[in-house]
Amino acid sequence: MITKRIIPCLDVRNGRVVKGVNFEGLRDVSSPVALAEYYSSCGADELVFYDITASSDGRAIFTDILAETAKRVFIPLTVGGGINTLDDFDRVLKCGADKVSVNSGAIRNPSLIYEAAKRYGNQCVVLSADVKRVDGTFHVFAKGGREDTGMEAIGWIRRCVDNGAGEIVVNSIDTDGVKGGFDLEMLSAVCDAVDVPVIASGGAGTIQDFIQLFRSIPGVDAGLAASIFHFGEVRIADLKREMVKNNIPTRIDGDTQ
Amino acid sequence: MVAVVDYGVGNLFSLKSSFEAIGTEVTVTADRETIARADRIILPGVGAFEDAAKKLRSSGLADFICEQAGRGKPLLGICLGMQLLFDKSYEYGVHEGLGLIHGTVRPIADVAPAGYKIPHIGWNALHFTRPNGLFAGLCEGDCVYFVHSYYATDCEDAVIATTEYGAPLTAAVACGNVLGCQFHPEKSGSVGLKILKAFSEMKG
Q1: Does A218 lie at the interface with B, CB-CB under 8 angstroms?
Q2: What is the pLDDT of residues A30-55, one digit of tens each?
Q3: Which of B121, B151, B193, B196 has the highest number of chain A CBs within 10 A, making it the mutation to test binding with A?
Q4: A69 close to B (CB below 8 A)
Q5: Full-model pTM
């Protein structure tokens, strides 16, 4: 039985983790490498590194950090942020990324997903979609959720899958940061529309939110979150124990039991 | 020393790093002398079977690897590298593999029930069907990371582990010193590192 994945997301700027991190017993909490090692040891099933640097200097620091992480952490790594061209794919894959997530880059250049999937395989290409309700329909937003593209989201996601996206991260802007639970309605709509893995993002506040997610929508493959993990509000080891208790297929790493 | 065969398919960064992490000397190479000097060989691979098989043949490495394996040197194929060890694959046509293990490679869609997503991506449990040194220190049900759309079949005598995806899929095989795992040990956390360690210590 394939297990449901728990994925912490790290926003990285100028080589440091942003959004704040608060951990006991971790010496350098803003080091992405140290935090990645910590999460891996706690049982995280995968990691997302999100590059929020604007400058080219920052880009170089980011890829160094990525390579350093991939030397020490042996779980799948997904990289997103600033992926606009095949060269960007190449740059991060060479440094140890396993999957590359595209968002605004795919909106600006609709052939990016197709070209990347052709070169690296569908399993390597993740579509990250920021989605928000506008007048009762789901719209795709660009530029970190600031700009309404006017595009209907479910159709857009389906087109991206047809073009070769092998996995979808659905980030609900409506529930993001509210900590009131995942956007089950939106996630159901996406799961009904595509047959590739769907990763839920936006809204998790407690362990129960993950339990409810996996129980109510069997088609969801993974839950992604950032600050609740960084601030220790939800500990991955506790979350996984609770998932096991609820008969949700869960990976328990031999060394973290 | 472990030689990871570099025939222009896929990203070998993590594979190299994982051997370094367990303290095993490793080199990523296409050089025959280096491969000949190595105590054991890793055949990696991602992407399409036909393309990989062609690259392996046109570089002359296919025959060389078979010859090295014939001398008893431990050889581990990973993911597509495992599939290449078999007689043939039905991935977009019919293509010949190295024939080091008898069996064929077929689409998961042939056996997985409706509703099971293809590719099979994620962490899934290992079920051991035969004891093998590759799994020293592992427990039944330990999870490893899979990414594949095709699976090895007609190879019952060689299967040492399966995984359940609506149907049992071949997860690992062994035929003497020739071994293969469908999953990625270099992406399978501490369980994966134990497998690579066990391979590093296998006697030829």
Answers
A1: no
A2: 889 999 999 999 999 999 999 988 67
A3: B121
A4: no
A5: 0.94
Tell whether A251 is covered by a domain.
no
Coil, strand or helix at B25: coil
Q: Would residue A234 count as lying in a domain?
A: yes
- Spatial distance between the Cα atoms of A11 and A236, rounded to a whole number of angstroms: 18
Counted residue by residue, chain B has a size of 204
Are A74 and B189 contacting, i.e. CB atoms less than 8 angstroms apart?
A: yes
CB contact under 8 A, B13 and A95: yes
CB A183 within 8 Å of CB A220: no
Min CA distance, B142 vs chain A (Å)? 7
Question: Helices H, strands E: what count in chain A?
Answer: 10, 11
Give the mean model confidence (pLDDT) for residues B154-168. Answer: 97
pLDDT in tens, A230-254: 888 999 999 999 999 999 999 997 5
Residue A248, chain B, CB below 8 Å: the answer is: no
Alpha helices in A94-250 (DSSP H): 104-108, 112-120, 153-163, 184-193, 207-216, 227-230, 236-245
Q: What is the extent of the structural domain holding A159? A: 5-245
Cβ atoms of B49 and B89 closer than 8 Å: yes
Q: Sign of the CA dihedral A216, A221, A227, A233? A: positive
> Would you call A253 and B120 a contact, using CB atoms and an 8 Å cutoff?
no
Q: What CATH code is carried by the domain that includes residue B58?
A: 3.40.50.880
Cβ contact A195–B139 (<8 Å): no
Give the contacts of B155 (CB within 8 A, at least 6 positions apart): B86, B101, B102, B103, B104, B170, B173
Residue A255 lies in a domain: no
Domain containing residue B116: 2-200
Query: What is the reported pLDDT for A257?
Result: 45
Q: How many domains does chain A have?
A: 1
Neighbours of B1 (CB within 10 A): 14
Interface probe with B: pick from A2, A118, A256, most Cβ of B within 10 Å: A2
Are A221 and B120 within 8 A, CB to CB?
A: no
Please name the residue of chain A whose CA is at the shortest distance from the CA of residue B16: A71
Domain count for chain B, please give it. 1
In this structure, the strands spanning B159-164 and B86-89 are unpaired
CA–CA–CA angle B56, B43, A119 (5° rounding)? 65
Q: Mean pLDDT check: name the lowest of A3-17, A52-66, A233-247.
A: A52-66
Measure A254 CA to nearest chain B CA, in Å.
7
